[in-house]
Sequence to fold (89 residues):
Amino acid sequence: MSAEVELRTLLLDALEKRDRELLEDILWQFAAQRRLHAAFQQLEPAELARLAEVLGDEAFGEFLAELEPGDAAEVVERLSSAEAADVLE
Fold:
């Protein structure tokens, strides 16, 4: 299994368990590999919203700051669409 697939699997597992510390460790590994935006893109909008919730605003904001401005805007837009979908349900 490639390291990226393994990290993604670990990310989803930590997200399911709501393990904030492990999530932060995994996301910093993605950031170090310059793959953070790709990791966010692979998450479903609901998963991305759960990630933001588990991390909290300050920590999630730190990860957004690691992205290029356009990439960060795309992530925030996906978060907004996830929240809108929750309201409509």
